[in-house]
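Hi all, posting the design record for the shared folder.

TITLE: backbone redesign
STEP: 1 of 1
STRUCTURE INPUT:
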């Protein structure tokens, strides 16, 4: 574990002292933690599956990769050394650090919960540590009549993180989810801090964005939903920063976290929402076509590398995941056949029932959309458009997926909680969109 801490320190020093892009201490800490989590969830798996390196050496692998990438990057970024370092910590920043400290301490004390946490994510971790590869787990399929490919149903991000912790000795894996939640609230705070609105409104938006019980509950569940939410939320933060400055570093960071998200959950193709938002930004930019193509290629390569690795791994290991990974033509065919009125009513009722607990957030989003887009003639800020694109594209994808499931699986309407968990990103996105909306109202007075 000492090497893991050194890895974190290297990433932090590289971001805060070497990049010097105006990162505050709070942002550098959050960014360092989430990068380390992402790297730690990928590198040991690749080392074990493709190079037969035992998970016992996970800490050494992670440290080596972090040190190598940081050292190589320093050779190409020397010109940034002259930029000013931001050492300031405001009182509110300090309070955020105190809050994060309490969350981390709580994470050490909480027991692991959740059915899939024990039967899938942690179970895979224990088998990894015992020397079993994921590719070996196909042998267990014959014992599961309901879901024969259960151990392959999700990418291995959280399982590998559990394994990395276990490789250092007995420990509580819930600290992983405490770190994810801490990073999530740090970046929600960074989002809201920059808005030009009343401090009380900022506090209210922060509370409804990060302290919603549905999200906070996931600090007690070792599921993939909170890690996915955090990766996507941080990716959005830097995508918006890229939209404001068009600095390539922000685009790279955004793509990196979208890639980490794809290595955590691959069932819902929510990366499409980010691609559409990125396409909007790149088409809006006044540069040459070749520059647009290069930027697009960079974003696609970095963000989709993990998805491609996982897809190829599944294809060559087990051949495919069956009906949960259909071809495009098959998906279109089943969605088309699902559009009968009787089936549509069933789907509408299912979606309504599943999302009723975030109904207020949905109504807030619809109100802002109707007010801003249909009644206001003034120009809309780019960041508002990005959030709107991701919200509506995400919901379209989720509903489309439900239509497909309704014609594929008999149990499709028995998983409302799973559907709700997959829509958790709506909660902070609504908070951020509301902040931009209130900011607009203030500037138009």
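Okay, here is what came back for every position:
SEQUENCE:
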């Amino acid at each position: 574990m000492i090497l893991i801490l050194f890895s974190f320190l290297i990433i932090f020093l590289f971001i805060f002292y070497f990049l010097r892009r105006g990162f505050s201490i709070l942002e550098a800490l959050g960014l360092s933690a989430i990068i380390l989590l992402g790297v730690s969830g990928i590198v040991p798996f690749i080392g074990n599956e493709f190079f037969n390196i035992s998970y016992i050496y996970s800490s050494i692998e992670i440290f080596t990769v972090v040190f190598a990438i940081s050292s190589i990057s320093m050779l190409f970024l020397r010109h940034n050394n002259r930029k000013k370092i931001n050492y300031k910590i405001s009182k509110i920043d300090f309070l955020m650090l105190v809050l994060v400290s309490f969350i981390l301490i709580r994470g050490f004390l909480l027991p692991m919960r959740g059915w899939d946490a024990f039967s899938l994510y942690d179970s895979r971790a224990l088998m990894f540590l015992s020397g079993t590869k994921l590719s070996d787990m196909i042998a267990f399929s014959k014992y599961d009549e309901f879901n024969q490919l259960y151990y392959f149903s999700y990418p291995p991000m959280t399982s590998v993180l559990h394994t990395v912790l276990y490789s250092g000795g007995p420990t509580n894996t819930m600290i992983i989810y405490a770190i994810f939640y801490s990073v999530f609230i740090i970046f929600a705070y960074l989002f809201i801090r920059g808005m030009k609105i009343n401090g009380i409104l900022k506090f209210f938006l922060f509370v409804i964005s990060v302290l919603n019980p549905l999200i906070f509950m996931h600090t007690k569940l070792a599921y993939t939903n909170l890690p996915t939410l955090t990766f996507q939320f941080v990716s959005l933060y830097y995508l918006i920063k890229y939209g404001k400055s068009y600095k390539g570093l922000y685009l790279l960071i955004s793509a990196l976290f979208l890639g980490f998200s794809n290595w955590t959950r691959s069932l819902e193709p929510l990366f499409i929402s980010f691609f559409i938002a990125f396409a909007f930004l790149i088409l809006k930019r006044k540069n040459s076509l070749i520059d647009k193509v290069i930027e697009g290629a960079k974003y696609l390569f970095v963000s989709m590398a993990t998805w491609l690795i996982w897809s190829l791994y599944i294809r060559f290991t087990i051949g495919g995941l069956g009906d949960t990974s259909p071809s495009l033509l098959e998906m279109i065919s089943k969605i088309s056949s699902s559009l009968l009125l009787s089936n549509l009513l069933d789907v509408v009722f299912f979606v309504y029932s599943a999302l009723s607990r975030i109904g207020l957030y949905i109504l807030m989003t619809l109100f802002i959309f109707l007010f801003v887009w249909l009644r206001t003639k003034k120009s809309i800020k780019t960041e508002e458009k990005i959030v709107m694109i991701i919200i509506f594209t995400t919901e379209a994808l989720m509903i489309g997926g439900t239509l497909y499931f309704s014609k594929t699986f008999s149990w499709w309407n028995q998983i409302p909680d799973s559907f709700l968990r997959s829509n958790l990103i709506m909660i902070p996105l609504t908070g951020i969109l509301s902040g931009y909306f209130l900011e607009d109202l203030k500037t138009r007075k």
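COMMENT: The CA atoms of residues 314 and 320 lie 6 Å apart.
Let me know if anyone wants the other runs.
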